[in-house]
Amino acid sequence: MKELKIDSLMKTYSNGVQALRGVNLTIKEGMFGLLGPNGAGKSTLMRTISTLQEADSGTITFDGIDVTKNKMEIRKRLGFLPQDFDFYPNISAVDMLNHFARLKGVTNPKERKEIVSYYLNKVNLFEVKKKHLGSYSGGMKQRFGIAQALLGEPDLLIVDEPTAGLDPKERNHFYNILSELGENRIVILSTHIVDDVNELCSEFAIIHKGEVLLTNNPIQSVEDLNDQLWKKLIDKSDMKQYTDQYKVISSRLQAGKVQITVQNSELPDETFSSKDPDLSDVYFSTIPADEIV
Ligand code: ADP
Q1: Ligand 1: centre distance to CA 198 (Å)
Q2: Per-residue exposure over 249-266, b if at least 16 CB sit within 10 Å of its own CB, e if not
């Protein structure tokens, strides 16, 4: 069973921003969600694991190998889909993948063709393989990004915010492809979208301001909130009174009023009714709502 272990990872950028403040995580095979708002430190962590940048202190070991001391070793076993993945718009998907496969050391043209076709099929782009990448939709581009990340059969796959900007249909299609990837390898999916974790991940962590606030599996984390959530429809003008008195984890407008969700170990009073928890409640109960940008 492969394992990625992150210990006391710290990173402060030269502008003084503390992006990682002692991150500890143990990640096993399967799909692991790294959930947090913008600016939480997800990309910094992903880039550090991918050996693209270095932390100030702390260690990362993958399958017993020290990542910072054995960069080439890790790169051979790593697939990475960065957040701002972009490529030459005037090249076809098949030509670009062929090029990447050559860079990965597949020198035999026949073997290369087979590998490229295999991955194009896997991400449902085989039919459109000759189209220029510039003509691809957002979802197609992300699927192409997965194909390039999978070349070389990585046993550590990192995808940074892959569903941001996809419409619901494209997102679903992408989920179907991602859901198969967690077998026999570690996949880390960084995201600010709670549904990504709900749909795909067997384990997840919530990261905020460079710190891991919670690690759990999604089902257990939701169960932990059973009998703790209460909802009430209030007037907007009463909001402050409730936030002063209770832990209001979220609020949303409903027909001109505000529906609030309060976390409390017992029914606050008879004007509240109980609410079944879901994963977004876990998220909001972990990260203060006014700190989510
Ligand atoms: P996330 O991926 O969760 O949005 P990031 O890792 O991109 O978070 O950013 C964490 C914090 O570090 C943010 O405050 C961001 O502005 C800052 N940051 C990220 N990259 C740099 C950089 N190269 N130089 C300075 N600050 C950075």
Answers
A1: 25
A2: bbbeeeeeebebbbbeee
